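ERR on first pass: missing label on line 2. Operator R.T. fixed the label and resubmitted. Corrected input:
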Amino acid sequence: MLRTNKWSKTTVFAGVAVIMALIGFACTPKSGSQKAKDGVVAADAAQKVYVAPGKYDEFYALVSGGFSGQVSVYGLPSGRLLRVIPVFSVDPEKSYGFSEETKPMLNTSHGFLPWDDSHHPNLSITNGQTDGRWLFINSNNTPRIARIDLTTFRTAEIIEIPNSGGNHGSPFITENTEYALASTRFGVPIPQKDVAISSYKENFKATISFIKVDPKSGNMNLAFQVLVPAIDYDLGSCGKGPSRDWCFFTSYNSERAHTLLEITASKNDKDMVTAINWKTAEKCIADGKAKEWKSSYAHNTYSDETHSAKSEILKSQKVLDPKDCPGLMYYIPVAKSPHGMDTDPTGEYFVAGGKLAAQITAYSFQKLLKAIEEKKFTGDLGGIQILDYASVMAGEVQKPCLGPLHTEYDGKGYGYTSCFVSSEVVKWKLGTWEVVDRIPTYYSLGHLMIPGGNSAKPWGKYLLAMNKITKDRYLPTGPELAQAAQLIDISGEKMEMLSDFPTIGEPHYAQGIPASIIKDKQVKIFELDKNKHPYAAKSEKEGKVVRDGNTVHVYLTMIRSHFGPDNIEGIKVGDTVYFHVTNLEQDWDIPHGFSILGANAAELLIMPGETQTVKWNPEGEGVFPFYCTDFCSALHQEMQGYIRVSAKGSNTPIKFSLGK
Amino acid sequence: MQKYSRLLIFVSVALIALAFLFPLWDIAIFAPQYPEGLFLQIWINKMGGDLTNVNILNHYIGMHPITPESIPELKFMPMIAIGLMISGAIVGLINKRPLTIAWVVIFTLIAVVGLADFYKWEYDYGHNLNPDAPIKIPGMHYQPPFIGSQVLLNISAFSYPGIGGFALMASLALAYVAAFGHLIFKKKKA
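pass 2 clean. output:
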């Protein structure tokens, strides 16, 4: 009944809010809240989000699907849902995880996993600017990072991360997409072993993983992992410009607690920000400072030529211990239990939300370098030196709101921070650290997104606030309610609420990109001539049925509006039948679907020029229909066929035909 | 005029060559589901464009698929054009008016027969329908327009000469000037 992770968070925040209210902690939004709640928005709000039929939105928003495991694609400013991209969870609508070709995408060292929790989409960048090539996103539960190809809006690759207990703080992209970084949320024994949970401090560890991204193909490989003390690493951000060699992570649980974290991990006034230099790490690796560890992790890739995924289990990776690599990483104290860590567009400031401390801390990169040079250390945690807070801190946004979580930038000198507890966005000025505006959201805002707002070049026109709770905001639908995104106009001095729309799953973060960067690079069809699927039938003449022992391969074609062949006989009870179905169409937006009665799988949804396979085990004798599941033409309803199943051991010969 | 006549014939021959580089005729089809259009190009020796998709659409109403291999014109039209160019070059070299006139007459006959043949092909294509067609509308034919546009059910079809077609027209026009230009220019001088 409870969604535990959300519930516990909510409980903590609610408790904090009550306490703060009791002690008269005055930090509530002062204006506008009642007005906007009543649905009163500026008179021209509708005009600003209205995109006429047939017209395109200005931005793509790529929104994490949270516990749906997927990524949803919306147009902004309209909020129209364009597509749900299956990533970490099966999607019967698109046969993802059901067709033989896509099953390997969800393979892991634990076998085939039908579900995960997708969190933080991050676009590939060149010189710190979004380039519209790929979208990376993490799975939170069983640690993985996926790469989505933005020419097909499909998942192209998934790599598992070994030696990680929960992959929340992930994936954060370096300035030219050299690496995607992933940090461990839960400290665990690394490598895994059977120990008492109470031996956390002695036995538990965490890692920060560096996934190398091939600049041409985008292919990922686990270059190395850094073995770090077991605190709960949280969100991160890689530097840009002057700070391009560094990445930063927040963390909580500096207490290194292993039970009732909501209390025990909230004792210390300060937690830690991690600053890690990937160039230094590369140098140490090159100097042979890393050790090769045995492990087991899956690497899955999808080919648009064979129209198939393959999964391989990799067996080792490099692990670097910071004590073998001086200058690799430092801790910096931060207001307790922070969440977001966000580098500003210039790369000079990196900003942490205080979450439980009602404080936003901005650090200066120049001061960081100076503090390291001058050895302003105050101690260490697990062998990692802790820098003096005041020597690195550039400024604090004082009492901005309750529960500041995550900051993005507009490129015009302002930061915008989401505030979970007080359900609002605050706008503050970089340098003076003054709050200049605030606007309520409904309710319990988690992440926010400005297109390019975490990159070197934000498009500071819209802000998307992603809310965890909607309560009374929409028509009620029983106990299960939608999460929501709210669109805020940030082009002027004052933020202005424009619209809201429900989202798929709980959005944890999103990315936005001007449509012009990717819309003209879209793949429309797969060329049939280039189809290298081993079971493709590239013309009706190649349609056939081949028996191989108890296995039968049906090479099936589809074109408006028939299958070839569409009458099949000679199948026997106990056979395993593979329907390899090729869509012969070569025209945009003419997919065909396929399903057969009793299929213990999803439909196949096959794009022009593509081949997909579904397995079918006939359990009884008879004649079974199959049909096209995607309304393809005026004769779609006629697009059907029959397959005859005879008794085990019968001598019905294999026979197939079309139009006879 | 006589020396211009030779030049005109050579230009005329060169323009025929253009018909090998550009389509003779362009057909465009728009429908609600095809806002971006489907396009067919008729070349002197081949068919180009969205042939597969046009064939798929047309099978609903029983129009026979266009298969370039079964259109003999695409085989002998290039030969005729080459013959016309060789003979034109010879006529230009000799540059005697009666010969030029004869060439122009032959060229004209070929053009007329060619266009009539194209019209007949369009007529057959639009009228000679498969009796097993899934969609049959009594009295309906689907002959594409010869030149201009026409609405056929949900489809708007447009048909116009391509660059190659215009080149042939210009070529024929110049041949006429070469053969009969002296009549016009004499009159003006007088």
